Amino acid sequence: MRPSLGFYVTYTLSLCLGLLCLLFVSCWSSLWRGGFSWTGSPLEFNWHPVLMVSGLVVLHGNAALVYRVPFTWRQRKQTWKLVHAGLMLVGFILSVLGLYVVFDYHRGLNLTHLYSLHSWVGICTVAVFALQWILGLAGFLFPCSPLCFRSNLKPVHVCVGKAILILSLISCVSGITEKLQLVNGSSGEPYSSLPVEGKFANFLGLLIVSFGLVVLGILSKDNWQRPETDGEAIHVNKTLSRSAFLHLH
Amino acid sequence: MRPSLGFYVTYTLSLCLGLLCLLFVSCWSSLWRGGFSWTGSPLEFNWHPVLMVSGLVVLHGNAALVYRVPFTWRQRKQTWKLVHAGLMLVGFILSVLGLYVVFDYHRGLNLTHLYSLHSWVGICTVAVFALQWILGLAGFLFPCSPLCFRSNLKPVHVCVGKAILILSLISCVSGITEKLQLVNGSSGEPYSSLPVEGKFANFLGLLIVSFGLVVLGILSKDNWQRPETDGEAIHVNKTLSRSAFLHLH
């Protein structure tokens, strides 16, 4: 199977959008929200958007795309399973750190934890991410996992992976909305007059959504998938072929 | 192809979640936000969430699932194309009405239009919805549309349809977040103390997300698709069958 030009264009777009997301979220925290600080300062909060966008969106999205990159197709799938799991683990750790800083910030200022819709969706996202990683490890990396468990888990793993990315997009956009409303007017102009910070953070939201949709678009293209050569994949292909044959006759 | 029990369970779940979304959003507007009114009253705004959740989420999601319902498989696809397009049109009209009421409300109170991230994502969603409907009509319902345009449009139409649903979920959750922050404490207790309204609207947000994810889950299951019998579908099946054959040999 030859990698298509369409894939390379779309993949490059996803990489550019991912980098822009990281750049914009870091600039927002550092230029308009006062920069970063460790435990004990109100500036600790500013790590939260950076860690969440990096872990839940950009790293998670890139880890999901690992198998689609054509130069990996000539190498053993096991190697890229480890890369996929490793990137996901880093993404998960960043998101847990992102949760830690927001809980610590709330504790420091005596603010209520987990009251907003953003926090409800966000905590669900990280919980599902944890479960998905553990099940993925058990199913696809433990050599002793039974083949039937592995083949039943695969479509669920793919589907839940996409759901986590969608939940991450919802969490990030609602988080930016919440933050902009909470700090409304704190730097002089109200959000409704659309100051530079407002425009910038809104644009960050659009970048995050665009990145997520491009990644989901790549994942939805069946002919951009890694050509399967493992035993379990041949079984799936046999079933597919039989179903297409039955359709025609 | 026999419809599976798994489909019926998941489809029933989507119907229940859709109905709960409509119930919850109507209760939120009527019980906590003062009910509904037409042009000229601040209560006009309360139509906005109801119209958007009904049009962009519940009707859009159900229209997307029309071809998956097994009892429709014995009938002509053309009939169900008309039902699909009709439901989508009603959903689109409701979402345009939802935009109208919010613009009219802003005009009445001299508020700025389109400043928030929620409004940016929301307006993009409705614009893409309009484009998708027009292209769908031109490609799949106009008898004179060329077969090559139709077969190239189909995967794009499916992909953009899913993207519109994801954008709708993001718009709705960010809209609920924005509204809860804007009316924070207006009914006595602040949002951070999680009054009944806060819990109720947060739960509405989770229902909307769950509905969207269940619909996207159903759409992602290839073996729950309507068995294709039209000429254009046989062409696609032939290509699939050839590709599966090449995988195996």
From TrEMBL, chains A, B:
Q: What does this protein do?
A: Transmembrane reductase that uses ascorbate as an electron donor in the cytoplasm and transfers electrons across membranes to reduce iron cations Fe(3+) into Fe(2+) in the lumen of the late endosome and lysosome. Reduced iron can then be extruded from the late endosome and lysosome to the cytoplasm by divalent metal-specific transporters. It is therefore most probably involved in endosomal and lysosomal cellular iron homeostasis.
Reaction catalyzed: Fe(3+)(out) + L-ascorbate(in) = monodehydro-L-ascorbate radical(in) + Fe(2+)(out) + H(+)
Any one GO MF term held by the record is: transmembrane ascorbate ferrireductase activity
Q: Where is the Cytochrome b561 domain?
A: 13-220
Q: Which named protein is this?
A: Lysosomal membrane ascorbate-dependent ferrireductase CYB561A3
**Which EC number(s) are documented for this chain?**
7.2.1.3
Positions of transmembrane segments: 7-31, 51-70, 82-103, 115-144, 156-176, 200-219
Q: Where in the cell is it found?
A: Late endosome membrane; Lysosome membrane
Give the matching InterPro entries: CYB561/CYBRD1-like (IPR043205), Cyt_b561/ferric_Rdtase_TM (IPR006593)
The EC category is translocase
Give me the Gene Ontology terms describing cellular component: late endosome membrane; lysosomal membrane
Asked whether the keyword Electron transport is assigned, the reply is yes
Membrane topology according to the record: Multi-pass membrane protein
Q: How does it assemble?
A: Homodimer.
Keywords tagged on the record: Electron transport, Endosome, Glycoprotein, Heme, Iron, Lysosome, Membrane, Metal-binding, Oxidoreductase, Translocase, Transmembrane, Transmembrane helix, Transport
Per its UniProt record, the required cofactor names are: heme b
Q: Which residues form a coiled coil?
A: none
The residues the entry assigns to the signal sequence are: none
Pfam families recorded = Cytochrom_B561 (PF03188)
**Organism whose genome encodes this protein:** Echeneis naucrates (Live sharksucker)
Keyword Metal-binding in record: yes
